[in-house]
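Weekly puzzle thread! Below is a chain. First person to post its structure in token form gets bragging rights.
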Amino acid sequence: MAVPVQYYLVLSAAVFCIGLFGILTRRNALFFLMSVELMLNAANVNLVAFSYQFGNLTGQVFTLFTMALAAAEVAVGIGIILVLYRNFSDVDVTKATTMRW
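Winning reply:
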């Protein structure tokens, strides 16, 4: 007996809400990065669940593209975090307002 698709959707909604909560409440750039990754993974779970339900591979292909996008996003995000740490000796994003022109 297979697991119903609704369980995957509930799991995905919970993970997405945890990621959204992390973005809205934290000031640390590393937590921002991890929260965005949680939200992307929640979208991936949705894509794979619907791909399984409808019996085609389109959702799984989109998931692979999303994973590649997430890897690029992490590379850019780590670069930004390193610049924040080098300039401010902290990864608090509220201190970055002094970097304006």
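Puzzle host: Confirmed. Bonus trivia for everyone else. Residues 25 and 71 are 24 Å apart (CA to CA).
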